[in-house]
Amino acid sequence: MFKRYRRIVELMQAFIITGLPFLRIKGESALRFDIPTLKLYLFGTVIWIREFYLLLLILVFFIFLIISVTNVFGRIWCGWLCPQTVLLDLSSDVTTIFPLRLRDKLQKLVLLPLSALVSMTLIWYFVPPEEMLGTLFSNKLITLFFLVLWIVIYSELAFLGRRFCTSICPYSMLQSGLFDRDTLVIDFEGSQEEGCMGCDKCVRVCPVGIDIKKGLRRECVACAECIDACRSMTLPRNLSPFISYRGRLLRGKTFMLGAVNVVVLSVFLVALFTRPPFDV
């Protein structure tokens, strides 16, 4: 159940991130930082490097947004929206039509073109896509950036993979400090432990290799693979699933954090649209 929804969300995220550089507003990219002129094109408006305070407001807004989303929804970002998760999930899905013994090697092959696309997409946020594609192998600087990014991204995805999430990712380490008792997490109903069939399907499908039956772990990315696995075993037997999302989304803290985000965003928008014009 959750896997289907997660794939839809992942495909939408991939489409938006890859397609945004191609969206044109007033003749310029919807979102792009132009390095030669030090200008940020932001959905039809232009922020100059001299207006650095606006960039600081954007940064403050995103910091509060990350804190709010993490406190309310836990590691939903990691399991549903993180670009690394999206790439690993989609490349893994492509290999499911092949025998199990070949899937790991085939996934590494699938990640080659995907990593190249990610490398190009990152450059598109600094160089217009048509310019970048037209000079990909004639402009030495663009070629160098493309190849370096491709190698780094592919190496990380193919050889580190999920281990990056559990041992290196700084956001993963930060999140545990932002949780409270009402944060959305995946939970094993300990009171029903005696009824668990012990099939360990939840462990086998876990992308980061944890056993949710032993309690919540920092490594859990809230992808809900274990929930779907448990449902597939319990529902045909008329049993209630032992694993589920647990948390309280609507609470005082949710509205307080939401209000802070609205205030910061409002301050940014007011500053953006009331800034004095200056000569170019």
Q: What is the structure about, briefly put?
A:
By secondary structure, the protein is mainly alpha-helical. The chain has helices spanning 2-19, 52-73, 76-81, 83-94, 100-124, 129-134, 140-160, 162-167, 170-175, 201-205, 225-234, 252-273; strands spanning 24-25, 28-29, 31-34, 39-42, 45-48, 185-188, 243-246. The termini are far apart.
What would your notes on this structure say?
By secondary structure, the chain is mainly alpha-helical. It has 2 domains: 2-176, no CATH class; 184-246, no CATH class. It is built from 12 helices and 7 strands. The protein has helices spanning 2-19, 52-73, 76-81, 83-94, 100-124, 129-134, 140-160, 162-167, 170-175, 201-205, 225-234, 252-273; strands at residues 24-25, 28-29, 31-34, 39-42, 45-48, 185-188, 243-246. It has a 3-stranded antiparallel sheet, with helices on one face. The longest helix is centred in the middle third of the chain and has 25 residues, at 100-124.
Structural class by SSE content: mainly alpha
SSE run: HEEEEEHHHHHHHHEHHEH
Quick one: biggest sheet? Answer: 3 strands, antiparallel
Total strands: the figure is 7
Specify Rg, calculated over alpha carbons. 22 Å
Question: Span between N and C termini?
Answer: 55 Å
Percent of sequence in beta strands:
5-15%
Taking strands numbered 1, 2, ... along the chain, how are they ordered across the largest sheet?
3-4-5
Uncertain runs are none
Instruction: Give the total of domains.
Output: 2
Q: What average pLDDT do the residues reach?
A: 89
What is the molecular shape?
A: flat
